[in-house]
Design a protein that fits this description.
Blueprint (H helix, E strand, L loop, with lengths): L11 E7 L3 H20 L4 E8 L10 E6 L5 E5 L5 E7 L2 E8 L5 E9 L4 E3 L2 E2 L8 E4 L13 E5 L1 H6 L17 E3 L12 H5 L5 E3 L8 E4 L2 E2 L21 E9 L12 E6 L7 E10 L16 E13 L1 E3 L8 E4 L4 E23 L1 H4 L2 E2 L2 E2 L1 E2 L4 H4 L9 E2 L2 E26 L2 E17 L5 E21 L2 E22 L19 E4 L15 E18 L2 E18 L6 E4 L8 E2 L15 E3 L18 E7 L5 E7 L1
Parallel strand pairs: 2-8, 2-9, 7-10, 14-17, 25-35, 31-34, 36-37
Antiparallel strand pairs: 1-33, 2-5, 3-4, 3-6, 6-7, 11-16, 12-13, 14-15, 16-17, 18-19, 19-22, 20-21, 22-27, 23-24, 26-27, 27-28, 28-29, 29-30, 30-32, 32-33, 34-36, 37-38
């Protein structure tokens, strides 16, 4: 895979840098205080909106809308605007009755409409002509007691980690064996054409002690390895490799001590394996395929093929170095009892077949035979109709279904190395290096563009332990963690139209995205998908001093971390047209339009993150009969374009 650079569209960038120290904390505090009012202004409730129309689909302005909270009896009263639209924001979650009335129409009543937090509920109302007095109702086992610490948790041993079968060989899943730990069952799936999962982190989301998944702290050899989202480590298939590299890990579900508590959630503290005096190694391969998979409802007669190979090996033992120079033994340095190494490699090769179901224009609709009557297909629309596949499933009215089977290929290479060295009885050091590179590629939802995802991780940890006296020990540790994620990335065309610049909304670019009510959204040609890139660096330093005096033990520590979190994102970089219907008010089939092919009598909305939306001049004079299309720019300016009827 290649061509993982930024798209040629202008991307919005957000750069955040968090520095340790009092000055940084004061700055963050001031920012938070400044944002308090705006944060509260956003509200904690939901929104109810809708459009009031008559039987002829005409807007009904001035309609009275009453939204009654059934639990509190509080009512919100609104009046529809000139377009018949109304919106009530920040409604407390609960059950509501909605009443819509207007002079000359029957009252419309909606009972028990549930508003949930953060939800936007749409109630479109079509009033019936009649008496205004007439109403129409639109109808786990606890852990053993720990007497030395108030922390709650347990240890998952190396044997359990390596011997228990795990889906995808994701060692973090074994934390769910502990009480109070539960995987998030509604975790977003990883789709090749979207970035919703990447935005929340690729790692397995676990709730520990009821805390959010982003509130947990994942540590590897004392270094936090959380990603840019605050979540755990993961790859493009949603798992964290390295089962054979883990010696053991503990899961702290509550009351974490200060030296490991980085956030308010749980702590998963893993330790890598180290070498021993005896040389040990292993090799393995795990195969999973679709031989026994059941066909799902949308699959064709044959189950889409699936094959996953996970293979690798590990080796560890004392370090032996050859002797340089003439004479003497071949082995110049024997690391027995002093220097050890351990290395683990794991590779993953996956070919996952899935069935994708689309809603596309039916054959009759493509020919202009709509359910509302026969229309003439505008000539400028024909090239865009070719983007939509012809239905191969059921067709109902203006819409039909199309399904296809596609393959997503994933490649991952994971490597962990560790070296331990004992300088003397009072001084020892170890270092760990981890690298994980994962990439996937497959077609988008229209089988139009090849898309990819990238998830790369690197971790370095060096720890030195010095014993000053039997009762005075100092541990110093430095580390670095880096996470890079890109999703989704346009890799190339899967259809020649994906690079056809004659279809572009913006000059010199392929076709952009368009969305038509009732039809599956089309994300555009090469470079049209909304790409998000994350670059996350964490520099860490720790120092722990342990002192024992009599029957008392004391522990002092210092932790410093500098985080660089950079995000680059774009939304519809090639532009997007949005239409509320497959036909216009002049009975012309108009899914979307470029500038020079604005159809007769059609109004649509265009948006793009590109700062240069228009490259063509306006006409010097406008005819008496015009059609208006509103183009919305990111700066909230409204640009109006015209075409002659």
């Amino acid at each position: 895979m290649k061509n993982y650079g930024n798209s040629n569209a202008t991307s919005s960038a957000r750069v955040q840098s968090i520095r340790d120290g009092f000055a940084g904390m004061i700055g963050v505090l001031l920012v938070l205080l400044t944002l308090c009012s705006s944060a509260f202004a956003q509200g904690t409730g939901g929104t109810l909106s809708g459009t009031v129309t008559d039987s002829g689909q005409g807007a009904v302005p001035g309609a009275d809308v009453t939204i009654l909270n059934n639990a509190t009896g509080q009512a919100r009263k609104l009046v529809s605007n000139e377009r018949g639209f109304f919106s009530a924001a920040n409604l407390s979650p609960g059950s509501y009755d909605v009443t819509v009335s207007a002079a000359g129409f029957k009252i419309a009543l909606y009972k028990n409409r549930l508003i949930e937090v953060g939800q936007e509920l749409v109630v479109d109302t079509q009033l019936q002509v009649g008496d205004v007095k007439e109403t129409v109702q639109v109808s786990a086992e606890p852990s053993a007691v720990n007497s030395t610490s108030s922390s709650l948790g347990n240890v998952v041993t190396g044997q359990v980690v390596r011997d228990l079968p795990i889906n995808g060989r994701d060692w973090t899943l074994l934390a769910a064996l502990e009480p109070g730990v539960h995987p998030i069952e509604a975790q977003l799936s990883i789709a090749g054409g979207g970035n919703t999962r990447a935005n929340r982190g690729y790692g397995t989301q676990l709730t520990i002690g009821g805390n959010r998944p982003q509130q947990n702290n994942y540590r590897l050899d004392g270094i936090s390895i959380n990603d840019y989202s605050g979540g755990g480590p993961g790859n493009v298939i949603g798992s964290a490799l390295g089962v054979d590299a883990i010696q053991e890990f503990s899961v702290i579900t509550g009351n974490a001590l200060a030296d490991v508590g980085r956030t308010s959630g749980g702590v998963i503290n893993a330790v890598t394996r180290s070498g021993q005096n005896q040389l040990h190694g292993s090799m393995y391969e795990f195969l999973r395929n679709s031989a026994l998979d059941a066909r799902n409802f949308f699959d064709a007669a044959k189950v889409p093929p699936f094959k996953r190979n996970q293979f690798g090996g590990s080796i560890g033992g004392p370090v032996y170095l050859p002797r340089f120079g003439e004479g003497g033994p071949v082995i110049g340095y024997k690391g027995t009892n002093k220097t050890f190494f351990f290395a683990d490699y794991e590779g993953l090769r996956q070919n996952l077949g899935t069935t994708t179901l689309l809603t596309v224009p039916s054959r009759n609709a493509r020919a202009g035979r709509l359910t509302s009557g026969v229309v003439t297909v505008h000539p400028s629309i024909v090239p865009f109709l070719n983007i939509f596949p012809i239905p191969n499933g059921a067709e109902t009215g203006d819409f039909g279904s199309y399904s296809f089977s596609s393959q997503t290929k994933t490649t991952e290479n994971f490597l962990t190395t560790r070296v331990d060295h004992k300088f003397s009885g009072a001084d020892s050091l170890f270092g760990t290096y981890l690298t994980d590179k994962a990439e996937s590629q497959g077609p988008d939802g229209f089988n139009f563009v090849i898309l990819g995802q990238v998830a790369n991780r690197k971790t370095v940890s060096v720890e030195e332990t010095h014993i000053f006296k039997p009762n005075l020990i100092n541990i110093i540790r430095v580390g670095f963690s880096r996470v890079v994620a890109k999703a989704p990335v346009s890799l190339g065309p899967n259809n020649p139209l994906a690079v056809d610049k004659t279809l572009g909304f913006l000059a010199g670019n392929p076709v952009g995205a368009f969305q038509i009510s009732g039809i599956t959204r089309f994300d555009g040609g090469v470079g049209g998908v909304a790409e998000t890139n994350y670059f996350y660096n964490s520099y860490q330093a720790y120092d722990d001093l342990l002192y024992v005096k009599g029957d008392h033990s004391f522990k002092f520590g210092l932790a410093a971390e500098r985080i660089q979190s950079n995000e680059f994102a774009s939304t519809d970089p090639l532009g997007k047209y949005t239409f509320g219907s497959i036909k216009n008010n002049r009975m012309s089939l108009v899914p979307l339009i470029p500038w020079e092919n604005i159809p007769l009598g059609r109004s649509g909305t265009f948006s793009s993150t590109s700062p240069l939306l228009l490259t063509r001049p306006y006409p010097a004079q406008l005819p008496d009969s015009t059609c208006v299309s509103q183009f919305l720019a990111p700066t909230a300016r409204t640009i109006t374009e015209f075409a002659q009827i």
